[in-house]
DNA sequence: TTCCGCGTTCAGTCTTGATTGAACGCTCCA
DNA sequence: TGGAGCGTTCAATCAAGACTGAACGCGGAA
């Protein structure tokens, strides 16, 4: 969205064309989802090269500032999509893809939905019995069912070893 | 997000407190989802008062300009969340809640995901067999499974008459 | 102790997009 | 035919927040 550095950026260590496209697509997608575009590109890069990749190499291959890597790597880390790891004899931080990034992603989504549900409870259960209450209850029930559904999907993915990406 | 007119706005025809809170919460939620805040508040209003409500009454009750109602009502209409209806002897447009707004909402979500999947196919199936391909395939498969899951949920909701909100 | 490499933070810049209000065109009624 | 009511559109305004680059603080090495 904001300040796209270049329509398509080619990293210093060239990637197969398909990989480069994939990375940009993940940037597009994450941006649509309300996250910084760089976070999406970073996640995309780690999906094609599961690392470990050093902090400064990330900045080079994505053509972004170190500040952006710092911010966005922390973001992905906090969501359980990537891991910060030590590499023997190296002072730099290294990152690799988390073990089940998509399972963790689903948990992040349902976590947010649960938070919204908590704020909705204030309206749902205020004691009064007005006409409009049925729509509010229906909304709450919809959230509840969606959360159940997504968590069931997460559970299924987690139990399947095919759900494991990365090492 | 942008330019919130007031922390909490109370419509000209006062609503029960819980309804007013609910409307703002839906504004918050839709905003988080990347939609205009007014669209969320409008959807929230129609969930508690399923109408038909006239165009100008919507503007009054939400304390926003007619231009905003025009834009956002069209948006919700395009997503199948509300319906524009005729009211006998009235020149104004009226709106009511769609019959299964949440089912339609799910279809909108899966529609977007399918579009993303199409763009991913370009990278997935380019013939080459590089190492990073497994991550790309895993991403694609995750999307496919999530779409199946959400569409199954939509189908279940649609088949249940409890899924019907509005008249 | 000094220097250098490294990650974080923050002020500054810039883009996006939400919202408004006015102008417009349409339709219906007098 | 004129005017009023109605919905849409568009330029202008404004806030949010993405990204950068520089400054900073913290080690470890010389």
TrEMBL record, chains A, B:
<keyword id="KW-0804">Transcription</keyword>
<dbReference type="InterPro" id="IPR036390">
    <property type="entry name" value="WH_DNA-bd_sf"/>
</dbReference>
<dbReference type="InterPro" id="IPR011991">
    <property type="entry name" value="ArsR-like_HTH"/>
</dbReference>
<protein>
    <submittedName>
        <fullName>MarR family transcriptional regulator</fullName>
    </submittedName>
</protein>
<keyword id="KW-0238">DNA-binding</keyword>
<keyword id="KW-0805">Transcription regulation</keyword>
<dbReference type="InterPro" id="IPR000835">
    <property type="entry name" value="HTH_MarR-typ"/>
</dbReference>
<dbReference type="InterPro" id="IPR052362">
    <property type="entry name" value="HTH-GbsR_regulator"/>
</dbReference>
<dbReference type="Pfam" id="PF12802">
    <property type="entry name" value="MarR_2"/>
</dbReference>
<dbReference type="InterPro" id="IPR036388">
    <property type="entry name" value="WH-like_DNA-bd_sf"/>
</dbReference>
<feature type="domain" description="HTH marR-type">
    <location>
        <begin position="35"/>
        <end position="89"/>
    </location>
</feature>
